[in-house]
Amino acid sequence: MIEKPTAVHQKVKKLLASLSDGLYEREEAVNLSLLSAIAGESIFLLGPPGVGKSLIARRLKHAFLDGVSFEYLMSKFSTPDEIFGPISIQKLKEEDKYERLTDRYLPGANIVFLDEIWKAGPAIQNALLTILNEKIYRNGDKDMEVDIRGIITASNELPPKNANLAPIWDRFLLRLELGNIKKFDNFLTMITDVKDVYKDDIADDAKLSNKELDEWSSLIDQVVVGPEVLNTIQLVKIKLAEHNVRAVNTGNAIIVHDRRWKKIIRLLRTSAFLNGRTKVDLMDCFLMYHCLWGSPSQRQTIRDILTEAVAKHGYTMAVNLSMLKKETKEFQEEVASEIRISHTVSKDQLMIIDDEYFRIEKQDSKFQGAFITIKQFRMLSIDDPQVTNFYDEEKNLVNRVRTSKGKQENTIDVHHDATETTYRLQTRLLDTSETITKKPHPIVQKFWDERYQKLTTFIGQQLQNMEENRPEEIDLLSQNLFVDSEFSDVVKKNFEEVASSLQQLKLNLEKLQFSYTNI
User: Fold this and answer.
1) Residue 265 domain flag
2) Residues 35 and 176 sit within 8 Å (Cβ to Cβ)
3) Burial (Cβ within 10 Å: 0-12, 13-18, ≥19) of residue 209
4) Where are the alpha helices (DSSP H) in 275-401?
5) Are strands 150-155 and 111-115 parallel, antiparallel or unpaired?
6) Where are the beta strands (DSSP E) in 69-204?
7) How confident is the model at residue 319 (pLDDT cuts 50, 70, 90)?
8) pLDDT by residue (tens digit) across 159-210?
9) Is residue 307 in a domain?
């Protein structure tokens, strides 16, 4: 009987906990190793001797009920016989056939660990290429299908660039760097722990059987890869290409070929299935962080690209928010060009002197004062005269008299010697643009109303769809078995911002309709 997705999630979660028991700060490596094995892929562990690379591989084989493991430490003297099995003397003598006895060697195993992989000779590496990619081993004149679930390789260095190892390096889908234990409490517990971490203490009913894995494999192929995930992958690919253009002379280009992208999709589907889902989500996309780098120095760039792609464009692209924004902007511009008419008007504008004064244009000989401050003039009113300061050309105070704002524009009334004299303030003629509005033609308004209704209806449908089909995983993102929980905030933020942007667009359209129907 095929287990339900939720049951699969619980089983895998329990199995991962058992595999990590007794290991310290190695949960990520264990989790990703099991993920790669169930996906039928390979993982490369980079790290110095003594950080648990071989221990992780040995623990992983305990996860499989019917599993056969093969482990080998490579050296420059390693021969194909030691890896793929010795030549069958009987076959050679009796049938003149060159075949290997593979039962207890790599082609006959389910879980394989190859340490110091870069020390393997060309004959071993060439045979590994088809095993890694196609699960086929060429044994004599026959193509032998191998049932290898997962291959773990390890080394304390990256492949030397001058050794023509790019083909086999590209076959390792997941890449993870391991270091020494960082937390002091974990370090002390590890060195004093007497638990036998190599012992198989996992119950048989918690392990994965071949039948179970075959059933899962079929279900994994049925996992849906939604538009938000496909769009995110496409955007990441574009951003990597842009990075490579900038890095053309630095030797730090991030090259990802088509085969790797296809394998990444299988990995994401596997993650979704093991997390109890029938659809890949944006949280799964962060697994690409372990699949795209070619050197550790590239990891931060890849992390930044992934984070930006999900934070800014994840669900945004799924609802085509950019298209909606563009259509709304074009609608606003069309309405503005039709109902608003701009024309130029020449107006008198007060001249400002020294950023602080207005000049009095005409004076009689009895009145002293050429300037008034802008502040005092703006405080004047027509009906309530106030004592006002007046200044000469050097801005010295020369007069204080009662003054009110003139009845004509840009004038003041000075109350002096029992008389009231009106003076103009100096102005200059300036051309200013004024906008007047006109009611649109009824046919045009009808067309706009239809366009408004179409856009608001579509936005409403998108909002309703986001609410009704709110991804179930949104509230469970931090529980992803294979991705760091810190990335859950990135995914949640994008979903919430898309809903907020849709609401804002709807409000903008409502304001637009009001503007042309209420002139």
Assistant:
1) no
2) no
3) middle
4) 299-318, 321-339, 374-379
5) parallel
6) 69-73, 111-115, 136-139, 142-145, 150-155, 174-177
7) low
8) 887 768 888 999 999 999 999 999 999 899 999 988 888 888 899 999 999 8
9) no
Q: Which two tokens stand for residue 387?
A: 């004592």
Q: Taking a C-beta distance cutoff of 8 angstroms, is the pair 11, 3 a contact?
A: yes
Strand partners of residue 43? 152, 174
Distance, CA of 458 to CA of 408 (rounded, Å): 55
- Reported pTM: 0.70
Q: In what order do the strands lie in the sheet with 386-391?
A: 357-359, 371-373, 386-391, 397-405, 411-416, 419-424
Q: Is residue 214 part of a domain?
A: yes
Residues 51 and 197 in one domain: yes
Residue listed under structure tokens 């939604």: 226
- Residue 335 in domain: yes
Question: Around Cβ 85, how many Cβ atoms within 10 Å?
Answer: 20
CA distance 345 to 349: 12
Which residues span the domain enclosing 4?
1-220
What integer pLDDT is reported at residue 2 of this predicted model? 44
Q: How far apart are CA 425 and CA 430, in angstroms?
A: 15
Amino acid letter for position 70: F
Same domain, 419 and 461: no
Query: Residue 351: CA atoms inside 13 Å, Cβ hemisphere, count?
Result: 11
The residues, any chain, with a CB within 8 Å of residue 297's CB and separated by 6 or more, are: 252
Angle in degrees, CA 64, 150, 129, rounded to 5: 155
**Domain final position from 220, 246, 281:** 220
Instruction: Answer yes or no: do 53 and 147 share one domain.
Output: yes
364-392 residue pLDDT tens: 666 788 899 999 999 999 988 999 999 99
Residues 506 and 357 in one domain: no
Cα–Cα distance measured from residue 241 to residue 352, given in angstroms and rounded to the nearest whole number = 56
Same domain, 377 and 468: no
